Protein 1
Amino acid sequence: MRRNPQKKQKENVPLNSLPETGLLRLPRVLMFIEVSKSTWWGMIRQGMAPKPIKLSKRCSAWRAEDIRAVIDGTFTPETQEGVKNQ
């Protein structure tokens, strides 16, 4: 018998739980910016979201300041500091 998995409901995460500084991994970013993974990566390619910081070959993170700028609508690629163009 197959189960029909139900889609998890995302909890509303208060914006004040977003740290002022630090790094956020993808699942945490998507808690604040409610889009799918593929949409998020598309936003990065289009310059609508910050490029990740590579912590290792398979580990990426985003600056909390950049995520806050995306939420506030003030993000531009020029506002992103310290990330090389890849």
Note: DSSP finds three helices and three strands in the chain.
Protein 2
Amino acid sequence: MDTWFTRAPLIEEIHRKGLFVIGLVKDLKQRYRYADGLASLTPLHSICRKTQKRGDILGSVYAQLPCGIPLKIEFVSREFNR
């Protein structure tokens, strides 16, 4: 896979090797299991637990890939030019 973003097949392959993944995801067609349904990143962001801390982390939510691999998705600010 030649991409800057983490996708489900890459996460599954790394998980099979017994390793953890930290990656950047983009709101594409990928869906995540949350509360007995499937959702993309946009709805997950609207229902995520907002953090009270200052910094780049806006909020987080626990979800799963459709294959059952558990995830913690953290939403961060996109301020690159500080």
Note: The two ends are 31 Å apart (CA to CA).
Protein 3
Amino acid sequence: MAESNSGASKGTTAAGSQTVPVVIDLGKYSRNRVKKLRKGSGVILEDAGEAIAELQADGKIDAKCQPVVLIVREKPKSGKKKFKGVLPRFMKI
């Protein structure tokens, strides 16, 4: 589910002084799950932790500090429109 893109092995550039950020795309989630992520809890945070732990175990990122960028997209709302007691103009009684 998670894809990563690390520019160099062990997160260092050719100069060796800077670390390259790792980009992890977690995909699309519902609006409520994205809200919980912003508050610091929920399913997405657990998924992100698992993805980072997997990358550390594979040796693709350092166990030390390295910038990690998470990309999470919000699913669009459904196309259903509810009329809350209001009739459209052409249906006036």
Note: The mean pLDDT is 77.
Protein 4
Amino acid sequence: MRFIVPKRFFHFTMDRSHSISQQIVRLVADDSATEPDELPPLYHSIDPNALETIIESMSRGHVQFLYAGVTVRIAADGTVELTANAPLGSTKSSGD
């Protein structure tokens, strides 16, 4: 038996009218069919100012953190990967 955790990929295009933090909150909210104000504050997971600074200056690599039950991974090329952190055993697949 193996456990499958769904991953979703998005290409992150900077919208200079909103902060990176606001965009991440909106992306997680949209993906989970939740209103942004129903999610916990981002600062409970990561310092939003530090996130802004790192993403704006990043030329390679990635930043990864857990937010609202989702692992958020932001690569230097703008790709955002969301991985749901389902409780162990909640999504099952038969096999190996």
Note: The longest strand covers residues 62-67.
